[in-house]
Automatic annotation (TrEMBL):
Name of the protein in question: Golgi apparatus membrane protein TVP23
Main location: Golgi
GO biological process: protein secretion; vesicle-mediated transport
Region annotation (Disordered) ranges: 1-24
Function as written in the Swiss-Prot or TrEMBL entry: Golgi membrane protein involved in vesicular trafficking.
Residues annotated as transmembrane: 68-87, 130-151, 157-176
Length: 220
């Protein structure tokens, strides 16, 4: 799909860091709101972990219930695919205001494209912290599973691990590059504002202009 045909979904997302003030927060025993109550998108936060935790649990505990490797393989792959799509298209946009995708050009090359939130929209720290934690911890767990497969000579289970690592690392690389691109854009925009006469740059320019005017007035 061409870039011009894409709708900027980030502009339609609920502003980061906002909560539903119409509900009374459910307090835990320590008097602090629960994580879901602190989250701006609790349902999205649940699904950010649901499929990846489900795939890991199916892989680890599946043999307790069945010896059918094909069934465990299919269930794990389905949950991994659901997780990849959810993280790539939903939770990244809502929880951290980032979105990435790739497009294939006519010459056969692939271009990575990134979208990011407006920096004036603050992030919910709970959503941001849990998003990045889930993004990086899951592939680390699959790496451990892969090492155990090799050490125990259960090589057929490496098929599941390979699929999991491919899908998880695609999102890790995509969001890491997207976050880096967003920070570069924000830094460039800030520098442009400083030099273009807005914000602090405009203030400094005004002070310099008034200083020159006063100096000229004192000389004549």
């Amino acid at each position: 799909m061409a870039t011009t045909d894409r709708q900027n979904l980030l502009s339609d997302a609920q502003p980061m860091g906002t909560t539903n003030n119409t509900l009374e927060p459910d307090l835990e025993a320590g008097g602090q709101p629960s994580i879901l109550k602190q989250s701006s998108h609790p349902v999205c936060l649940i699904f950010h972990f649901l499929f990846r935790v489900g795939a890991i649990c199916t892989y680890f505990f599946g043999t307790w219930f069945t010896d059918n490797f094909v069934l465990i393989f299919v269930l794990c792959v389905l949950m991994l695919v659901f997780d990849f799509w959810t993280v790539k298209n939903v939770s990244g946009r809502l929880l951290v205001g980032l979105r990435w995708w790739s497009e294939n050009k006519e010459d056969g090359t692939t271009t990575w494209l990134f979208e990011s939130r407006d920096p004036s929209r603050p992030l919910n720290p709970v959503d941001s912290r849990l998003f990045w934690t889930g993004l990086y911890v899951a592939p680390a767990v699959w790496v451990v599973f892969g090492i155990l497969c090799i050490l125990t000579f259960k090589l057929k289970w490496l098929l599941i691990v390979a699929v999991a690592l491919a899908l998880n690392f695609a999102n890790v690389i995509g969001y890491t590059q997207c976050d880096k691109d967003a920070k570069q854009k924000w830094a460039t925009g800030f520098a442009s504002n400083m030099l273009g006469g807005s914000g602090a740059g405009g203030l400094m320019g005004g002070l310099m202009s008034r200083g020159i005017t006063r100096m000229a007035g004192s000389m004549f």
